Structures are given as structure tokens and as C-alpha cells.
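WARN no homologs supplied; continuing
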Amino acid sequence: MADLHAMCRLQALEVVTENMVETERRVRMSTSHGEGSGAGATGGDGGAGRNVAVTDTPLVLVTKMIEEKKTDINSRVAFLTTVATVSRYRSILQHYLPENPRFSFPSDIAPPQAPTSAEGYSVEEIHLPSCASPVAALRLFVNRLTAWKKEILAVGNNLEQKWWVEPEDPEEAMREHNRTVLTFELAAATAAQRVLMERQKKWNLQELARVERNPQRKTALEEASRILEKCIDEERQQKIESSKAYAWSLWDTASKRVKNKLGPWVSSPDSSHCPEIRALMEKSDEPPSDEAGAGGS
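OK structure emitted
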């Protein structure tokens, strides 16, 4: 996070130099007005100094240099922030997703075939266009996905309670906690969006509605298609908002360290700030069980 730290330092320095440039501009205007007042007595323009610009002073040049340096660093900061966010939520998708959800429907809107499990239909078993009421079935499908997302967030809460090492600074502790929550929100939204997009492609509601001749059925398929598209967009927006909030939280950490004259933030070797990563590291360090080594004796 050295680049982010440098960016925050440049931002703070830029504020100082801009204030100094503005002060310099006001001084020059005041001086110009004072000189112009004498000229006004002989017909001169007393407002000659109103638009005095400060374009070539050392302070202005410093401000321009800071802006150029910020532009140079900004792309790296954006890339590294994205990498930090993506690496965390992809780890969650790979290692921590709860069991795939099962779906239940009332008999009057359920798919025509019976589920293969007493726990309900799997995602793959649901063919929405075959349901008597595609819209009602889709709403129940989305409700179950929403509950599944909450299960993912609960996994994050459990991991945090067991593996997170809370920083001494309460403000930074809150930021770290929020970043973990945002990471699991990203993972949950990504997982749900994948399911919805896969079903959208599989069900092909828009095309079925186009060729449907029954007016009521056509309307139902069109509405279901719109609802499905809206749900996908909501998950997409959730990902964008959580990613932005995560980036701002990292920025807040860096700016506070600059303000307190601390160095760049460095992650601990044991990933104590990332409970989901620390749990994986601890698991990989565990010695093999007795059963695993029994066959070699």
C-alpha cells in the first residue's frame, strides 16, 4: 500500500500548496489594486488588478508537479486496490460458499417434475418456463437466493469471530471489520449474480415470450424476464457499491496514517486483518492426522 500512502501524502501536500497559491493570488490582487488607485486619479483603470492570475510562481509550478505525480500514481493505486478486493472475495467463492441452495414451491406453481431430493429442487432442476406461474415461481426463487446470500455473510461473521486479530486503534478496527463485511457482500452478490445469469441463459424467457401465442402466458413470461434482468442488475450494482466502499476504506486508512505521521500500512505475515485468509493459512499449517500417515508404517 506504499502507492496509496504516497497518494494521500500528495493529496495533503496539494491542499497546502493550493491554499498558499490562493493566498499569493490575493496578495498580488491587493497590491495591484493599491497601485491602480493612484492611476485612477489621472484617468487610469482602477480595476486593472481584478483578474490578476498567478501562473508562473514557484508555488504554482509545485502544484502542477504534484498533480502530475498524482496522475502517475493513480492508475497503480486503482489497480492494486482492485487486486486486493478481488483476491479476497474470490478466495471466499472458492473456499467458503455454503452448500448450494435448495428451492421449495407450493404445489400449484411448482415445476411439473418432482425434485430428486426431499430438501427441494436444485438450481439445475428448476425450469421456470414449465411452472404454472413463472412470475410467482421466480419471486420464490429470488427469495431463496437472498436467504443464501445471508448464509454467506454469516460465514464471514463466524470467521471474523474466530480468526480476526482486532487492531488496537478502535477506528482502524472498525475499518477492518467493515472491509471484511464488504468482502463477503461482494462474494455473496457475485455468487447470486452467477446463478441468476446462468438461469437467464438457460430459461431464455425473452425468446420464449416472443414466440408465445397465448396472451396471458406471453405477458407472464415477459414480466418474469424483466424481473430476472432487474435482479441481475441489482447484484451488479451491489458489487460496484461494495467495491467502491472497500476502496474508500483503504483510502481512509492511508490518509489517517499520513495525518498521524505513520508509515505506509503493511499487512501482517499471518493475515490477521483477513480472517478468511488467516483461517486458510492456519489450516495449511496443521500437521497431517495420524490416519493420513498410518499407511506408511
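The chain has two domains: 2-35+54-89, 93-283.
OK
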